[in-house]
Design a protein that fits this description.
Elements (H helix, E strand, L loop, with lengths): L8 H11 L8 E3 L1 H7 L2 E6 L9 H9 L4 H6 L1 E4 L3 H13 L3 E5 L5 H9 L3 E4 L4 H15 L2 E2 L6 H17 L6 E5 L4 H13 L4 E7 L4 H8 L22 H10 L2 E5 L1 H15 L9 H4 L12 E6 L9 H12 L2 E9 L4 H8 L6 E7 L7 E9 L6 H10 L3 E4 L4 H7 L1
Helix pairs in contact: 1-8, 3-5, 3-8, 5-6, 8-9, 9-11, 12-14
């Protein structure tokens, strides 16, 4: 399939006219912290400051405004983990159409409430996006709604592609590297189409969460591939299968597809907030989280990272901190065998832990007629390099039972 027949420069220029006056032109801002750390002139495209808190309003508005009066009268239906939902809800409201949004049952409460506030009827169905998708399609067939696809649609891709026109107009120097988050592929398809035509020397890197590498796997396989089991933590960029149209474009336009660990994403969320006062959701942190993997390659270059969204649920803060500490090697969980005698815990604190280490989790119940009782213990250590010596001391003193960090199935059951 020729990608030039899917989406063109004129399509994206037309989308720019449609969304003008409603959708914001977001900032392209120099990041001093990234530039100093990496030695690359790094700029952040702040789509987290967009209406509805995400770039998704661009494609949704362009698509809804392309509908006929008869189609608008029927109402629209969409499926989304949250950001596309809000974009469709707001766009439909502005067009005078009703909107019905199917969201996965575990969607962020922040995104659910925001979608309802934009006037949509929210239906929670399915554990994965793909299950929500199938249900939304069934409503289209049964009730006559117009289905607004979150990414596998030329109008959606064209709307997202308007970001590229803004970046090129805002950048005072040629863009050497462009990092794009990839979920279903609509953003990457639209933006990469413009860059390949207007800035062909820019190297375009697509970034996915490690637990949901649908585009990466598909490009490696040479065909669009569904992944049965994915990590849904990065909800704005976790799909089991990317769009067919998006795949056709991305496999030609993206110079590289890479993944980044969810723990690194979490650390980046915290860093962006603490160092740059920027609030982002997990998908919004993908592009800056991956920069360390390219530290040698991008040194001395001009780099643009797209920050895709800010719709983070504050109730996830503790989970984000936990994942960041686990990834950085500061947080560790064990099954500890405590001798069932007075003073055993004190011995563990004095003989095993360092002066700056801390117990952050402790579950223990005394067992009768046993020499030792197991406890689940979470430790936060000051220096990640100390973990091997700490385990040696546990074994020597016969406290060691199991190390849980590298046993994910057991970890999820016990902690």
């Amino acid at each position: 399939m020729s990608t030039s027949k899917i989406i063109s420069l004129s399509d994206i220029q037309a989308a720019r006219e449609v969304i003008s006056g409603t959708v914001l032109k977001t900032q392209l801002t120099h990041s001093n912290s990234c530039t100093m750390r990496l030695g690359a002139q790094t700029y952040l495209k702040y789509e987290n400051e967009q209406l509805t808190g995400s770039f998704k309003i661009r494609g949704a508005y362009n698509k809804v405004m392309s509908l006929s009066k008869e189609e608008l009268k029927r109402g629209v239906v969409a499926c989304s983990a949250g950001n596309h939902a809000q974009g469709v809800a707001l766009s439909a409201s502005k067009a005078g159409a009703s909107s019905n949004i199917v969201m996965p049952s575990q969607s962020s409460i922040v995104k659910i409430l925001a979608t309802e506030n934009y006037g949509a009827d929210v239906i929670l169905h399915g554990n994965y996006f793909d299950e929500s998708f199938e249900y939304a399609k069934s409503l289209e067939k049964e009730l006559g709604y117009v289905f607004i696809h979150p990414y596998n649609d030329p109008h959606i891709m064209a709307g997202q592609g308007t970001i590229a026109l803004e970046i090129l107009a805002q950048s005072k120097t040629p863009v050497d590297y462009l990092f794009l988050p990839v979920g279903g592929g609509g953003l990457a398809a639209g933006v990469s189409s413009i860059f390949k035509e207007l800035s062909p020397n820019t190297k375009i890197i697509g970034v996915e969460p490690k637990g949901a590498p649908s585009m990466s796997v598909s490009i490696i396989n040479g065909f669009n591939t569904k992944i049965d089991n994915i990590d849904k933590f990065t909800d704005g960029a976790s799909v089991q299968k990317v769009g067919d149209l998006n795949f056709e474009i991305c496999k030609e336009n993206l110079d590289e597809m890479v993944t980044v660990h969810e723990g690194k994403v979490c650390q980046t969320i915290l860093d962006l907030y603490n160092k740059n006062a920027i609030v982002v959701e997990p998908a919004g942190a993908l592009t800056t989280a991956v920069l360390d993997q390219f530290s040698t390659e991008i040194k001395g270059k001009n780099v643009v990272c797209l920050i895709s969204g800010s719709n983070n649920d504050i109730t996830r803060t503790e989970e984000i901190k936990e994942r960041a500490l686990l990834h950085s090697g500061h947080k560790h969980y064990f099954i500890i065998k405590f001798p069932q005698r007075a003073g055993a815990l004190r011995e563990f604190l004095i003989d095993i832990l360092g002066p700056n280490d801390d117990i952050t989790h402790f579950e223990y119940s005394k067992k009768n007629n046993r020499d030792s009782g197991p406890a689940i213990v979470g430790l936060e250590i000051a220096n990640p390099n100390d973990i091997d010596q700490l385990i040696v001391k546990m074994r020597t003193k016969k406290f060691f039972g199991e190390y849980l960090n590298d046993k994910p199935d057991l970890f999820q059951v016990l902690v």
